[in-house]
Amino acid sequence: MKNNIVVVIIYFLTGVFVTAPIITIDVAGRLVSVFSILFALLYILALWFAFDAKKNININSISLAFIGWYILALIASIAGVIYFGFDSLWLNQIMSYIPKIFLYLTLLLYVMKWHDGSYALAAFFKGFFYGCIANLIWSVVEGLYYYTFNDTLNDALFLEYVKTLPDDRRYMTVVADGIIRASGFNIDPAHLGVIIPIIFVYALFRRNLYLIALSLSSLVFSGSTTAAMTSMLATMISLGKFELHQIKLKSIGITMLAIFVVVVGLLTNDFVRESVFKNAKGFYERTTENYVSNSDQGPRYVYHAYLPDAIYFNGFKTLTGSGFGTASHPYVDNPDINVNLDEEHRPYDPESTYISYLFDTGFLGLLFYLFVLISSIMFYRKRIHFGFTELIIYSSLCGILFSGFFYHYTLTAYQVLILTFSVVGRNSLLIFKDEQ
């Protein structure tokens, strides 16, 4: 099929705005995210081309496991309705996710039937790449703005969006003890915990000094320990693919000299030096608190340390799952876990995607999800030198895999779309062309 410019634009813009939910427009007096509108158009296009396609869906073990995961999630949701009966706290969580499960499952099936849509998927990943970079740049701007004007930029610019937030969270940017945690075009800096490593790993492969510096700067201003840990782990599994033998000593020397000059140049500016060091100190304190000291028994520690107790309390529900949004039930309702989690919102998701999916979709559901994710990483790891799209898919999957150990990303839109399009790219044996 000849590339359709309208399709390319919609898929590209969807990729850009999937990481920017706070960018909205007013539709009949209601704020609607630009991404929601673009996703609706993308879904309609996928449906149109699926019905127009003459071929049947080709299913292999990876796509079958992904479909199976969604089906298990639906079964777990039904089981959860039975388990919790008339407990509105958990029922509301379960019911809120069911439409998303159907939506993402049908999108997967539609795109799988569209055999010659590789150009559209490539456009999505290119847009996603630029969207990630925009988030990193914006987080740095947020940090510098805060230390200049003692005000939070997102709260000032997106005032109407702030009004839609819960009464106990009428702010967008987190500031604690005079230290900002920039979040980019999100309300939660945890999303930079995935986005920063994606660009960092990509930049290492491309040996792009500017993107490496941008990633590290965003890391400091976001204070994301998830981003730090994910970047390190993703780098470690990628070492064998960096082709270090092709890097000349002269290039290494020039790069190190450039880094030295940039760092010295920046730190001679009093304002920049003070801003960076203040956030770097706060980031160090958060890291040691989360991963070294367990004295406060915060949520991340509790959800990991008391996992066996939660599994025992949950009983048969751990096998079947009880629906998305119910993963904290075996913790917060467990009398044997006598720890105050100091929750701001209930239900409170565990600080791990994998613990969440264990209780949400059941043991088999977690295995299916891991099989899809790890198999996809292995597939694209062998193809990272084919072109831009393969590399950004690989770095994105690495970000998803490792960030899942440190935070919960339950059916997060950009992660679902990355998995969907990477599975389709593999399933249809599409070798994306580098269109840069």
UniProtKB/TrEMBL annotation:
From what superkingdom does this record's organism come?
Bacteria
Q: Signal peptide location in the record?
A: none
For this UniProt record, give its keywords in alphabetical order, as a comma-separated list: Membrane, Transmembrane, Transmembrane helix
**Membrane spanning residue stretches:** 5-25, 31-51, 63-84, 90-112, 119-138, 183-205, 211-237, 249-268, 354-379, 391-407, 413-432
Q: What is this protein called?
A: Uncharacterized protein
